[in-house]
Design brief:
Layout: H1 2-12, H2 27-38, H3 46-51, H4 54-63, H5 69-75, H6 85-91, E1 92-93, H7 95-102, H8 113-130, E2 133-134, H9 135-152, H10 156-168, H11 181-189, H12 197-206, H13 208-213, H14 245-254, H15 264-273, E3 277-279, H16 287-294, E4 301-304, E5 307-310, E6 319-321, E7 324-326, H17 332-343, H18 346-360, H19 367-379, H20 384-392, H21 395-398, H22 410-420, E8 424-425, H23 432-437, H24 461-475, E9 482-483, H25 489-499, H26 505-522, H27 527-537, H28 539-542
Parallel strand pairs: 1-2
Antiparallel strand pairs: 3-5, 4-5, 6-7, 8-9
């Protein structure tokens, strides 16, 4: 079916010189480069398949229409993925909340091991009876579904962009956003990963995960300003007020960039536009508010899923953000309008375009490429597919300087290793601990900056040791929940040819063979396993 799709696209696309022809690459080399940048690594035989028409393959990936039924079958065992956001909040609870619901008395601090074991069994039985899960269950499902997406998704470009945008609009599971993190990826980031940037900005900004993570859910009009429901003369003093965290990060990290031309006054004024953006409560403590909303007692309120706009919290005065005026009395619309303005700003186009080029081309991308991408971003209104097409057809993307210029992030290394070896990965696979050791504990990046995207963030002696240890553990079958198919010499030759097409294959093979005797003596004596391990440790495989 995929081959037919490539053929249809090849017939539809206008005849022209391939974008890699100027770099004097063969179709096999072009295919290998595309797979290294727009997927989590080539699967066995995929370089040859894509080489039949690399450009048609890329266009098909932009569409994101490949069948994902096989992946879905692997994900069906995760209860959280089939629930609505509201159901997850009611079914995934903290240990403290589960204990409270069970009616059991807390154990004394001096309780014995036997007593604790018995209590855990009582709580397990209660959870099963009530259909409840712990936050630990949620974390395991969250990590496992991402790894399975990276390894098994057919729409790899969509997957790459989902992880790219999640990192750009980072929220941390190790924060008050934890109960919303899965929904954030599934409902805000993933559906918009190849759409328009404006939609991404609005959906992430309104999502409970971001509202909680950067505290905008607690941002209320200062006491010296009227709200949509209460004139200034009638407002009572309040200890709550403006929170500028999200407004600052949305300018510095999500749109304009730190040098994007905004001031502290702009941050404050944007924060005023976004007051009243909060979270619809589904827990017991929010019952009174829910009743007020259902009875229409909370005036100037707007609910969109778990997003709630409260007019009684919203600053109804006039604001000025980057010389644009908002208000008075506009409500939800002025915050949305301000975010749309930021999404379409020239500084945003330049900042985002450089970030994109850093991720897909090199740590220090050519200014000409960044400018070309920025022009496309502004011209198309932030259409991500068009933006990526401009990137892929640019000579800088195909240049010798760009190829193998990027060090793989730990998640990219893990996923590409599993894909190239055609590994079988179970939902219980113990891969998070390896990612943590290599410095990328996914979903647990505390700062809103997200994980670094350049070599300096990932290249150190300790990091390399952990990468090599991962390669050794993988090929020797020492990672729980991961298994490899047996390989012979012909499989190794094919694998090396696929991983190193047109590169210094002969020299690399010689280095691998030269290092084999010591590795065989130090480990299992299995030459095939040691060759695999060394192959995953080569600089060529550690880069993309």
């Amino acid at each position: 079916m995929r081959k037919l799709a490539y053929l249809v696209l090849a017939l539809w696309l206008p005849a022209s010189a391939s974008p890699w022809s100027g770099a004097h690459l063969t179709d096999e080399q072009a295919a290998a480069h595309l797979l290294s940048r727009f997927t989590f690594g080539a699967r066995p035989g995929q370089v040859e398949e894509v080489a039949r028409d690399p450009q048609a393959w890329f266009e098909h990936q932009l569409l994101g229409t490949s069948d994902e039924s096989a992946l879905q079958a692997r994900l069906d065992g995760f209860p959280a993925l089939s629930m609505t956001p509201e159901e997850r909040l009611q079914r995934y609870l903290s240990d403290t909340e589960i204990l409270k619901r069970s009616g059991l008395e807390p154990l004394a601090a001096e309780a014995t091991a036997e007593e604790r074991k018995a209590r855990n069994e009582e709580l397990r039985a209660f959870r099963e009876q009530e259909g409840l899960h712990t936050f630990g269950d949620m974390r395991r499902e969250l990590v496992a579904q991402r790894i399975l997406h990276c390894v098994y998704a057919q729409n790899q470009l969509w997957e790459v962009m989902t992880q790219y945008w999640f990192n750009h609009f980072n929220v941390s599971y190790a924060s008050n956003a934890r109960v919303h993190t899965l929904s954030y990826e599934l409902d805000a980031v993933r559906p918009n990963a190849l759409g328009r940037f404006t939609n991404l900005l609005l959906e992430t900004g309104k999502h409970p995960a971001m509202l909680a993570y950067l505290n905008n859910a607690q941002s209320v009009a200062n006491s010296d300003q009227p709200t949509l429901t209460t004139p200034l003369a009638r407002r009572k003093p309040s200890t709550r007020g403006l929170n500028e965290n999200y407004a600052r990060e949305v300018m510095e990290l999500h749109t304009l960039g730190v040098d994007g031309g905004y001031t502290q006054a702009d941050v404050t004024e944007l924060a005023r536009c976004l007051t009243g953006w909060t979270i619809y409560p589904v827990n017991e403590a929010g019952q009174k508010l829910r009743e007020s909303l259902e009875e229409g007692k909370l005036r100037a309120a707007v609910r969109q899923g778990l997003f709630l706009f409260r007019g009684d919290y919203h600053d109804a005065g006039i604001k000025h953000v980057l010389n644009k005026t908002y208000g008075p009395d506009q409500g939800l619309e002025e915050g949305e309008a301000a975010l749309r303005m930021l999404a379409a700003h020239p500084s945003t186009a330049r900042y985002l375009s450089r970030q994109l080029a850093v991720h897909f081309v090199s740590d220090d991308p050519p200014p000409e490429l960044v400018e070309r991408l920025a022009k496309n971003f502004l011209k198309t209104g932030g259409d991500i597919r068009s933006w990526l097409r401009t990137l892929e057809t640019s000579p800088e993307f195909w240049s010798a300087e760009a190829r193998e210029a990027k060090v793989k992030l730990p998640l990219e290394l893990v996923a590409s290793s599993l894909r190239c070896l055609d590994a079988e990965v179970s939902p219980q696979a113990d891969l998070y601990s390896w990612l943590e050791r290599m410095g990328q504990p996914i979903y647990h990046c505390g700062p809103p900056t997200g994980f670094g995207d350049t070599a300096k963030s990932w290249v150190s002696s300790s990091a390399l040791v952990n990468r090599f240890n991962f390669a050794s553990a993988l090929v020797h079958g020492k990672i729980k929940g991961v298994s490899l198919q047996p390989m012979g010499q012909s499989d190794l030759d094919r694998l090396m040819a696929e991983l190193l097409p047109g590169r210094e294959t002969t020299r690399t093979r010689a280095l691998v063979v030269q290092r084999l005797p010591d590795r065989i003596r130090q480990n299992s004596g299995n030459e095939t396993l040691e060759t695999l391990g060394l192959l995953l440790e080569t600089p060529q495989f550690q880069r993309r």
